Amino acid sequence: MSFACAVDLPSLVESFGNAAVTLSFPYYVISRVTRSRSTCLQRTAFEMICGHYPDEWLRHYQRRDYASTDPVHWDAFTHSAPYRWQDIIGLSKAERRILDEASEAGLLGGLSIPVHQPGGSILLFKPVGLCIPSTTQSTRGWHTLSARSFTSNCTASRGHRRKGRHTSSHRVNANA
Known about the structure:
It is built from five helices and six strands; from the N terminus they run H-E-E-H-H-E-H-E-E-H-E. It is α+β, with helices and mostly antiparallel strands. It has a single domain, classed as 2-Layer Sandwich (Beta-Lactamase). It has a six-stranded antiparallel β-sheet with strand order 3-4-5-1-2-6, with helices on one face. The protein is globular and about 40 Å long. The N and C termini lie far apart (38 Å).
């Protein structure tokens, strides 16, 4: 199924997974990151809508509460175009450790494609597993596909969750 034919969140998830595999990305995640509007305490909510990551990495990530300091999520608030994880600068030791541990778990060459939604939340499409050159047609292609498809389809289908062999859904509230 193509992105253009996706009519709800489950079909969009299936389309994204198929596209990731077709482009030789062995892993992928679609997540939503939202910052609170409170000025006294900055909170971030992280929701994994679907994903195909190594199970051990997911358990490790959750045990360590990495959602609260994951630089891949934080950088989405300052980017409107796709960005490579290896290009994130100014990392703290804790943030560098997250990316190093992800790499050790087989999550090399991550790419984040942020889609900013009304209300301030950000959908992050994250195909992972290749060394990605800094300027590639595929990077621009992923941004175009995700922006067109997810913005029109996912917003209307909010609340639908697909549970399957390689799909999981997690909501984590993280203090930052």
